[in-house]
Structures are given as C-alpha cells and as structure tokens.
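Example 3.2
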Amino acid sequence: MIYVNGDSWTSGCFDEGSYGHREYSWPHLLGQLLEQPVFNDARAASSNYRIYRRTFDYLLNQTPDLAIVAWTRWVRVEFGNAASGKIYQYMPGKDPEVFKNWNPYLAYTNFLRQIISLQTTAEKTNTKLWMIDTFQNNLLKNPTLEWFKDILREGQVFDLMDDDRIEQKFNKVLTLNKHIDYDKFMFDNTYQDLVKDFQLVKDHPVKDGHQYLSEMIYNYLRK
C-alpha cells in the first residue's frame, strides 16, 4: 500500500467535486507503475496542518509500504468549528478575516515542526517516507535573514519587532531547519518547477503533468 497526502496538486484537481480527477492524479498513476494500491488522502485547498494531522494519525495506525507527502503553502491554516464539528481549511487571499491577527512566524515554524515530526514518526514506525515541496518560494533549505523578514511582512508582526527580536526569531528558524532531513525530499526542485512546461488549467497541472511527475517519482524510487 502506498499512502499519499497533499493538496489539489496531488488530489488531481482544484475542485473536489470534479469528476474522475483522481484517476489521472500522479499518486494513481504511480500506483499503476509500481503495481501497488494507493490511498490518496490529498484534498483540494488542504493546509499543511491537515496534511500533517492526517498523515501523522495514519502512520500511527497503519504500516504502508511507502508514504509520500507533498507539502502545500505554509500560509494556509485550519480551524475547527465547534457548532458543526467539522474542520475547515483557509487561505489568506480567500479568507482575509481569518488572517487579521495571523502570525506568519508561528505559521512558518509550525511548518518546520510538522516536517520534523513526520520524519521522526516515520523512523519510529519504520515507514519509508518521502517528501515533495509543491510550490516555489515555500520551504527554503538555506534561509537568510532578509528572506525571513519578508516572511514576517506577510502579517503585522514585522512592525512590532525590533532588530534584536527579529534576529532571535530567525535563529529559531535556523535551529528547526537543522533538524530537517532534506535527503528525505525526493527532488531539489519543487513540484511546480518540475511541471512548469506542461499545461495548466486554473493554475493546476492536468494529466500530462501528473504523468510526468509519477514517472519522475517512479524513476527516483528505482535508483
């Protein structure tokens, strides 16, 4: 069994109501190449909080032959609704009210913690876990202070911090970053970079892009 998680670029479509999208998604095509069943747990508009939560719980209870996580943009969040009992995903551009008091420093460092936690969990459960960064300018292997300041400017916290406070927070990012095993990321390039020359529909890859990525992953796993 292959377990896969991610957002719409992994589920196969930007709209979960669209017909047949999982049939041409890269996880489904990879399963055909490897001749193994696939549990594609990806959902359109997923945040990394959902990707982490669902993958973490799965690895604690199941033992897949292979797990692949395709991380989405770190700016997305999720919140539970007490009245409905459901968990909802939110994006800055679509849900501005949710992000009024949002802290980009906490969001980015939580992203790093999620990566570290899943890698540690995979080791503990003897799971072969590989990762992909879906989007450009998302996870930076060698962060700089100026880049970190740009992250802080995503919210209102930048104007509330002096230089010493910013450097202190940046050092926390560096500490967390050291604990990520980047050898567990399949590619140096992002998924977005890998399929940039393929057709996009509403900024999403379609079948030829998914086919290409499935073959890239297949060849990587065979090395």
